[in-house]
Structure formats: C-alpha cells, structure tokens
Amino acid sequence: MLELRDIQKTYNPGTVRELTLLKGFNLKVEKGEFLSIVGSNGSGKTSLLNLICGSMAPDAGHILLDGEDITQKKESLRCRRIARIHQNPAMGSCSGMSIAENMALAECKEKRMNLRPAVDRSRLPAYRGMLAELGMGLENMMNARAGTLSGGQRQALAMAMSRLSPADFLILDEHTAALDPKAADLIMELTERMVREGGLTAIMVTHNLRYALRYGSRLIMMHQGGIEMDLRGEEKRSLRMETLLKKFNDISIECGN
Ligand SMILES: Nc1ncnc2c1ncn2[C@@H]1O[C@H](COP(=O)(O)OP(=O)(O)OP(=O)(O)O)[C@@H](O)[C@H]1O
Ligand SMILES: [Mg+2]
C-alpha cells in the first residue's frame, strides 16, 4: 500500500508567488488499485505524482510504501518500485538509441553499465515477444531509432520498457494527452491490460473524463490541492458522465474559471 500522510507543500515560500498547494493532504492507495485522478489545470495532480515518485520533496508529512517510510528516498531508488510514464512520449526512451537498445537499457537500469547498453542477443526473442503483444508492429523494427517512432508507438515502447523493471507501481501523467484519439484509445487498452496482467497498482492522471470513468477501480477529483470526490467499487461503476461533468463544472464555476 502507498500512503501519503499529512503532506504539506508550499511553492516559492516567502515570496509574492507563495502558493500553499497541499495542506494536511492524505491519501491511501491499496495494492492492486487502479486509481484515476482528474481535476482542473493547476489542481495539484502532477505535484502529487512528483511527490510519490520522489522528484519533489514535501515540506512536511510522510510517504510510506508498504509501511516503509520513503519520504527521503531518492527518485533513482524509488524507480525500482515505481515506474512513470510521462505526457511527452519522448521522455520514456532515448531518441538516438534503437528499440532493442532501449529495451536493454530498461532491463539493465539497476546495473552499472556504459552510456550505450550492449544488447544481449539472447534477450532479443523475449523483447520481440513483449513488443508483439503491443500490437503495433514494433517487434519488426528492432533496429529503428526510438526518435523515428510515432507518439503512440513511442508511448507503447515506454510502457513495454516499464515492464522490464521490477516496478509494481505504474504512474501515468496524462500519458495519452499527446496522442491522436485512435492511438490514445489503443494505449489505454494496453494500460488496462498491463495493469491487470501484471497485478500492478496504478495511478493515472487524465483530463479525459471518459477514460477516468471507463478504466480503473477508483476515481478521485482534485481541486486546489484537495480531494473533492473519491469514488470506488459500485459507486464508481454507477457514476455517469453527466454527474462527473457537472461536478467538474460546479467546481470550476466556484473558483471563477
Ligand atoms: N515547481 C513549481 N514551482 C512553483 N509552482 C509550481 C511548481 N509546480 C507546480 N506549481 C504550481 O502548483 C499548482 C499545481 O500545479 P500542478 O502542475 O501540480 O497542477 P496539475 O493539476 O498537474 O495541472 P495540469 O492539469 O495543468 O497539468 C499550480 O498553481 C502551479 O503553478
Ligand atoms: Mg499536470
């Protein structure tokens, strides 16, 4: 279980741009949960993911992973358990390296190695098999540089790479936002399958309310650094788009957007 306990976060303290975003923020994510987070721009979604992944430290409070306090643990160590897929497909792989080299890099992440990983040829069939499962033909392009792939292909590659690490937490920050509708739907299907088959715990930030409704076991709506709605189980399953949209609009109107 992942737990955020009494988290405080203020940006630019002591300046005119001071912003206290999180104040006594609490969240528990159970093992195997697939949590979707929605919320307007600036509501704190990415900040929350940054705190979980360790790319930003809280001013106070604790982050616990299976009971272990990881608040002070470096991002580079947390990524053994927590894989992250970014909004920008280019962030998940190295442009100048081939698909095979990127897969090798993901697999050797924890080992000491040169900047460019040597691809162990005996691993190629396994890589091909994983890529074939994505249904995007990447298994036939093993020598193509990642920089030449489309956004959808590249995001799928990043997801396959995440499965080569032992991480059992998947953090997705608007990972379909830069994709066309068809590629986005495909990546969402892949995400759902990967989470289910890998028994992963997933936290997905999305502006796509349709995805938040359709996928995942729990849905949270954030607003100004707080949780405005938290639904799971039957409550989540029976939630209708009109209700979700109305809640979203009511909140936006409240703060004058
Ligand atoms: N590094 C930072 N320094 C100062 N302020 C920041 C920083 N990161 C975020 N903020 C502020 O914190 C608030 C929340 O930002 P955050 O990026 O977490 O929102 P978000 O919900 O992810 O928004 P979006 O939907 O636009 O991605 C915003 O007002 C933002 O300007
Ligand atoms: Mg964001």
Structure description:
By secondary structure, the protein is of the alpha/beta class. The protein has one domain (2-95, 151-254): P-loop containing nucleotide triphosphate hydrolases (Rossmann fold, 3-Layer(aba) Sandwich), CATH 3.40.50. It contains nine helices and ten strands. It has helices at 45-53, 75-78, 99-107, 124-132, 151-162, 181-198, 209-214, 233-237, 241-254; strands at residues 2-11, 19-29, 34-39, 60-65, 68-69, 82-85, 169-173, 201-205, 218-223, 226-232. The strands form two sheets. Strands 6-7-8-3-9-10 form a six-stranded mixed sheet, sandwiched between helices. Helix 3 packs parallel to helix 5 and helix 5 runs parallel beside helix 6 (181-198). It is globular, with a radius of gyration of 19 Å. The chain starts with a strand and ends with a helix. The mean pLDDT is 92. The chain binds adenosine-5'-triphosphate and magnesium ion. Residues 11-12, 19, 21, 39, 41-47 line the site of adenosine-5'-triphosphate.
